[in-house]
């Protein structure tokens, strides 16, 4: 059996892939932490590909600190663009299918209709720009790739908005949260399931896809839902983006249209409220 290499396996999505693979009994997955598979180490990567001759490489590795990226442009670009190119080159050489994860932050976010894969990109942050550059370097090396753009990832693993809200909610009586940025939260466990389905079904419909949960919300409404499900009495105050200054600018509207993913990847996508409930139940059970 040919293997699947998973880069960035210690991050949030990497841990969700391990969780879902264990649930499904998926075999042949090789989980690589940054120390075991640094996507900037071309010699190390070449050795891994020579050893495993993988059928798939899933790239969960990324520079994801959105605000910090504004000051660390070179490092963000190295990881989010050059690292992806290193993988794509080897995938081309070995006939490996590359599964790359990208973001809603490739869009400017000044529209008000769900974004299609064919819509124009216009990143407004260093993180968004370098992730887009990472998308763009792939096709020169291989046409056997899936790029999955996702948004607002959360889960019981690593750091994310849900866990931050639960922590702040326990510590503070009141929280001020932006209500004029609209998007769709995505349970990283659902995304991990989609990725494993692509592999298990040996899907050959390569290309660019949007994948988030269904529905839309604001960060404020998302926070309110988290506090309600978590049984926290925290008062949530809706504020405008201008009242919460951050180094990086974020899209005001980044809801993505998933019609293509549902038609071609064979996945049913849960609504964000249903998936949030599942995640909150698992977090509560783990306490
Ligand atoms: N989190 C989110 O809300 C969203 C994420 N995405 C995308 O989804 C993907 C997964 O994100 P997520 O799991 O949340 O991110 P995390 O930040 O949790 O995980 C990223 C992992 O990549 C590792 N990494 C960094 N540099 C390298 C390197 N040179 N070689 C190998 N590994 C490296 C990090 O290690 P270390 O911690 O040691 O630096 C970390 O474990 C990313 O592509 C991200 O851009 C898209 C939309 C939303
Ligand atoms: C903690 C906090 C955040 N916010 C706002 C700031 C921001 O607009 C929004 C989310 O903040 P965060 O810093 O948690 O999330 P952020 O890092 O902006 O999340 C993004 O990460 C990258 C990796 C992606 O690819 C995106 O899809 C998106 O998930 O919530 C508040 O309004 N009040 C608060 O107390």
TrEMBL record:
Q: What class of enzyme is it?
A: oxidoreductase
Query: Sorted alphabetically, which InterPro entries does this protein's record hold?
Result: dTDP_dehydrorham_reduct (IPR005913), NAD(P)-bd_dom_sf (IPR036291), RmlD-like-bd (IPR029903)
Database matches in Pfam families? RmlD_sub_bind (PF04321)
GO molecular function annotations of the record: dTDP-4-dehydrorhamnose reductase activity
GO cellular component, alphabetical, reads: cytosol
What EC number(s) does this enzyme carry? 1.1.1.133
Q: What protein family does this chain belong to? A: Belongs to the dTDP-4-dehydrorhamnose reductase family.
Instruction: State the name under which the record lists this protein.
Output: dTDP-4-dehydrorhamnose reductase
């Amino acid at each position: 059996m040919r293997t699947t290499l998973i880069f960035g396996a210690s991050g949030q999505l990497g841990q969700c892939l391990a969780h879902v693979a264990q649930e499904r009994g998926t075999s042949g997955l090789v989980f690589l932490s940054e120390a075991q598979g640094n996507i900037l180490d071309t010699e190390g990567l070449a050795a891994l590909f020579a050893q495993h001759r993988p059928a798939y490489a899933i790239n969960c590795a990324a520079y994801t600190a959105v605000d910090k990226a504004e000051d660390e442009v070179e490092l963000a670009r190295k990881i989010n663009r050059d690292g992806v190119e290193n993988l794509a080159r080897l995938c081309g050489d070995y006939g490996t299918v590359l599964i790359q994860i990208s973001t809603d932050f490739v869009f400017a976010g000044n529209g008000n209709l769900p974004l299609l894969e064919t819509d124009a990109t216009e990143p407004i942050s260093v993180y968004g720009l370098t992730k887009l550059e990472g998308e763009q370097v792939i096709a020169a090396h291989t046409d056997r790739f899936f790029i999955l753009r996702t948004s607002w990832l959360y889960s019981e693993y690593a750091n994310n908005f849900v866990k931050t809200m639960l922590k702040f909610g326990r510590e503070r009586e009141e929280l001020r949260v932006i209500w004029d940025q609209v998007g769709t939260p995505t349970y990283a466990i659902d995304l991990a399931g989609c990725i494993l389905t692509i592999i298990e079904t040996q899907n050959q419909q390569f290309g660019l896809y949007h994948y988030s949960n269904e529905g839309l919300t604001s960060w404020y409404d998302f926070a309110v839902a988290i506090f309600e499900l978590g049984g926290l009495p925290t008062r949530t105050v809706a504020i405008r983006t201008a009242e919460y200054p951050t180094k990086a600018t974020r899209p005001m509207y980044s809801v993505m249209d998933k019609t293509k993913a549902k038609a071609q990847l064979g996945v049913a996508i849960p609504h964000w409220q249903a998936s949030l409930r599942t995640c909150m139940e698992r977090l509560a059970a783990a306490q």
